[in-house]
Specification:
This protein has 303 residues and is α+β, with helices and mostly antiparallel strands. It has two domains: 121 residues, no CATH class; 164 residues, 3-Layer(aba) Sandwich (Chemotaxis protein chec), CATH 3.40.1550.10. Helix content is 50%, strand content 15%. The chain has twelve helices and ten strands. Helix 1 packs parallel to helix 9 and helix 10 crosses helix 12.
Length: 303
Amino acid sequence: MYNQFFGNYLFSKGYVTKEQLIPALMRQKDEIVRVSTLALYSGYMSPEEIESITNLQLKKDEKKFSELAIEKGFLTQDQVLELLDAECPAFLTLGQILIDNGIFTYEEFFNILADYRSQNEFLELELNANSKDVVQSLIDNFSLLSETSFSSFGKSYLELLFNNFIRFIGDDFTALLPDLCKEFPTECCVKQSINGSYGINTYLSMEKSTAIAFAKRYTGEEYTEFNEFVFASIEDFINLHNGLFIVNASNDHSIELTIGILSAENNSLISFTNRAYHFPVCYPFGIVHFVIEIGNITDSAIL
């Protein structure tokens, strides 16, 4: 869950570019956090000590990092066992990949972690926090880092959206900061409108390879190629999500909304006449793009 905050924190602060961040996010599912990274995070070793052991490994490649660190007195055997047994935040693998890619040094990553902790203590959830707490903090994080405010309906819509991503697709995503867009290029894209006193146009777009993996997770079926069933799964997801939203609006606020018919907007460059916000959600299998175009909304805050 921590990656949902840490990834967009790195991007919003300019520590990484989108071109550097997204490939690293894609690699996370295959990455195992190393003792060196755990030792840095726990404070058992300094960046300089880790660099010295890493350089020593180049000369003695038959020895593990932990063995050399114990030999040099930087770690004890008990500390190594403690590190290997401890639960750790998922964002450590992201930092580790960025170090391996030469984006950060260990010292730079150490300083970034210190800044992240000091500036974002309100985001430090327990590792077993439920998805509702995580999503609420994710929306708060959007507001803080992008310096925008969400209307009550907009916040409800986004909370439901990310809860549905977690429920139906998986919680292993990083939600990058939303951006205001005047046009958006699509590949495999579904559009649906919500009509009434809260009126918006919603778009769910992704590449075909991403759509296949998305549909496999959503339906549990083993798709090997893009076809009408894969596209129907994307349609079903957005229709289900928007349907749940209008039910909640009726039950919680006594506001009656309707949803429009689904339409395909494949391989198009969509131009928006009203304000539109792009929410990129990065999964290990690819990026899912959710775009919301504002229609009939009287609230002065966004969405």
